[in-house]
Amino acid sequence: MTFNYNFYKTPENRWYVDIPAWTGSNDELEMVSGADTLLDILSQGEGKINLSFSDKLINESIVLKKIKDTPEIGGALYNLEVYCGIDYNLEIWLCGVTEWIFGYLPNTIYVI
Q1: 36-65 pLDDT, tens digit each
Q2: CA-CA distance, 60 to 88, in Å (whole number)?
Q3: Which residues contact 44 (CB under 8 A, 6 or more apart)?
Q4: Which residues make beta-bridge pairs with 63?
Q5: Pairing between strand 48-54 and 108-111?
Q6: How far, rounded to the nearest angstrom, does the alpha carbon of residue 61 sit from its chain's CA centroid?
């Protein structure tokens, strides 16, 4: 499945995902531990960005590969190896909201 979400950066330089159906706290939607860095890279200095995510291959997508599940804190660690020909090897923790969106934690997430 493919999901589409808006992300926005607050005046305090904190990234959040906008999920209207989310019933938890807004704090749970904050992008931290590398996810914020990824959004800084992808947004190219803008304070908002719209992204699509899929567990199925999307042509010309950014590939996030799961490193390991993190059951002690929820979610999983992912790695962005390359983006636009630049080696990042960026470790990204995606929290349990990712599992809520997909229904599980995919081994590979494709982003466009």
Answers
A1: 999 999 999 899 999 999 999 988 899 999
A2: 17
A3: none
A4: 110
A5: antiparallel
A6: 13
The token pair at 88 is: 């990042």
Query: In the structure encoding, which two tokens stand for residue 11, read together?
Result: 């005046």
> Can you tell me the distance from the alpha carbon of 79 to that of 75, in angstroms, rounded to the nearest whole number?
13
Q: What is the C-alpha end-to-end distance of the chain, expressed in Å? A: 13
Six-digit token pair at 14?
A: 């904190």
**Residue 94 bridge partners (DSSP):** 76
Torsional sign, CA 50, 56, 62, 64: positive
Q: Which residues contact 75 (CB under 8 A, 6 or more apart)?
A: 69, 93, 94, 95, 96, 97, 98, 99, 105
Q: What is the pLDDT of residues 70-106, one digit of tens each?
A: 999 999 999 999 999 899 999 999 999 999 999 999 9
Tokens of 27: 């704090």
Tokens matching residue 103: 């229904």
